[in-house]
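Entry 14. Ran structure prediction on the chain below.
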Amino acid sequence: MKKLISLSFFVLLYIYVYPQQQVITVDSIAIGRKPSAKINLDGSITARNFNGKRAITGSIATGQNPNTNDIVAWLNAVFYPSQVPTASISGGSTMELRAAGTQTVTLNWTAGRQAATEPLYAIMVSGNLQTFTQPSAPGTVSGTQAVTITYNTNQSFSNTVTTTDGKSASATTTFTYLPQSYRGFISDVSGIGNSSSDATIRGLAYGFTTSRAMSYTTGSASNKYFVYAYPASFGDLAGLSINGFPSLASMTKITRAFTNASGYTQNYNIYYTNNAQTTSGYPVVAN
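Output, structure tokens:
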């Protein structure tokens, strides 16, 4: 009797788990078949007549491949995927060209989890693996990393964050070295051709530059000479206008070694007006 009951149980289980396909009809027209399904020991359900290992063609997730026949896993992969982590890093800046040397600077980094980001696995800053306390989701963790920069060499440093499920995010910070250009009025141009006037030129309005182009509104002239100085490697000016009038022909150009405030020396083109200016607050445009 016990053997008969056991046999009956497995027969019923087989019928429940592996049902025969049935044609469902409405008005004698077949509209579909009920697929067979397998109930696994862990409670998950595997659809026997469903292919979940194919690229989705729907507009929501075109090209995504969940790569599973487990319905729950498939739905999670399509509709509830984990999110990428977050990463940031700061400390870089644009710096003036300077005398040769190195400097140690401190970078600040953060790594984070969004609401559906898996736990963080690793944080790599400038090639150095960081120690950290696992943040909650959502949440962030932060820290610092010392690096050595070489003067006059553009350098970038990265922060790469990875999660336990292989997703990642990266951020970079960069140190960039540029020359300055200088423009403004000086009262005496007699010594502008030698290094004794370097301090005077450095005292003019200045800013980082990557070309000879310039646009500037003058301050008080007070019978002074207008000067514009920039790296000679950018070439000679094609034109310069003062208050809208072409004025390059009324200026003198010299090229000589110039030392900036950070001790870096390079050749500069230095233009200055042949006559002292008396009008203030006018635009100067160079190209």
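The chain has two domains: 85-177, 179-286. Will compare against last week's run tomorrow.
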